[in-house]
Structure formats: structure tokens, C-alpha cells
Amino acid sequence: MPVSNLIHHIRNVAESLRPAERKVAEMVLADIDFAMRASITELALRADVSEPSVTRFCRAVGAHGLRDFKMRLAQSAAGGMPFAAAQEVTSGDVTQIGTLLDNVAEAVVQGVKHARASLDPAVFEAAAAALGSARRVYFFGVGAGSGLVAQDAALRLLRLDIAASAFTDAHLQRLYAGLLEPGDVAFAISQSGRSVEVNESIQIAKERGATTIALTNAGSRLAWVVDIPLLLRVPAAQEPHAPGVARIAHLAVIDALAIAVAMGLTPRTLEKMREAQTRSGSDSVGEVKE
Fold this sequence. Notes:
Layout: H1 6-13, H2 19-30, H3 32-37, H4 40-47, H5 51-60, H6 66-79, H7 83-90, H8 94-118, H9 121-133, E1 137-140, H10 143-158, E2 164-167, H11 170-177, E3 185-190, H12 196-207, E4 211-217, H13 221-225, E5 228-232, H14 245-263, H15 267-280
């Protein structure tokens, strides 16, 4: 089970690690910012150990490897500020505010990079092709994370002249999934892949003959159900005040899909988009000027 805060966990287990792994732990705790950004070679040199020792350390503290370790470390650094420290930040400590912003930004960067590394380009291309040729696309998501991403995704495709809608209500998801037909696409967004409403709606859409796509975690139940699984290895935030990296990674993938679809549009459709953009005062695809 993932630990709630990797930095605290390293402190707790450091003494029980092997000597080489303990040297890596001490180096990480001494300079967390360096550890989040350094390569495996740089980490090994500073800790005065071999590169395999760095990898063994990462696994010893619960990470799958260096990439996963760095992302979890960045999340812990961003979300691990205790309440007392948070009170000091609100009182106007510019130094702590700057550190907080840096840590959150680093967690986001590491999370998006981690997600990109786990995404299969061939599967991404298949998803973009399915969206570009769909008669209509229904996005399903629930909650403040996946639900908002679903709504953003539908808006982006609408501006590409694709009939798209987003449904975040369980009853409406099942209802509209039952209306889909061959040539349509049902697109589920759920990082955990355990949402009962979303999974049932996707199953209904698949039985109706629609192409099913999911933006979800590798190994989730949802990933096994759909035709085109876009798998992202992004650990969920373990604390309420940790940055929502999964949501941002999802938005990045949706952006990339929208751009990929736009690149395959005909000149006539592109002209329609420009005219609609001019009439609405939109700055870019999916973005409305306020």
C-alpha cells in the first residue's frame, strides 16, 4: 500500500535499510529539491553508491523505480507541509510561499512526465482516430476531478465540430450510454477505474456497439473493459492537501487528443471552426474569452 508521505516514510525506515541504501536516504533527506531533479547517475555520485543501489533504495521505500520515486517525492514535498507551517504561510512568509509554489509545480511536472512515459503512442493514435471519425462522443466522469475533465473534453471536441457531450450524473450516464450505436464513442475518465457508475455505463455502451475508450490507471478494472485503454501510471494524492496531479495529467492528455484530432480535420471544417471562433470571441480551441 502506498505510504501517505514518502519523506516521512524515508525518515522512519532509514535506519533499517542496507548501508548503501541508507546513504541514499540520507542524501535525499539532506537535499530533497536535488533528489527530485537529479538523474540516477547524479544521485549515485552524490550518495557515493552505485546506480543499482539507488534503484534498490527506491524499491525499498515503496516506489516502483526512480521515476515513480521522484514523482512520489515531489507529491510529498508539495503536500507534506504541516498545518502549523500552513498557518505561517498564510501570515505572509514569502519564503515559505515560494517554496510551496515550487514544490507544487515540481509535483505537477513530475506527474505529467510520469504519465507521458506510461502512455502508449499507438493506443493514443487509435483513440484520436476513433474520436475524429465518431458520429458522436459521450464523455463519462464523476467527481470534482474526472467530472470536470469530462466537461472540458466535450467542450474541446464541440469546437472541432464533433457532436460531444459530457455526463457526470450516474442516471444520465446509464441512460445516454443506452442510446449509443456503432459509429459512436463512449469515453470514460476515471483514474482509479473503480467508479461503479462509469464502469456500468461503459459496459452498456459496449453492448450497444459503440467504441469505448478510457483514460484510467494501468491495471484498473475499467482498463480491461474498454476497446482503447489510455493507461496512465499516476499515483493518487494520499492527502487532502496534496496537489491533484492526476487531474492535470488527464487534462494534458485531452489537450493532446484534441490537437491530434484537429490535425486530421478537412480544410472546410477548419474554416467552420475559424468562423465559429470569430463569432464567439474565442482565443483558442476549447477556450472561451471571458
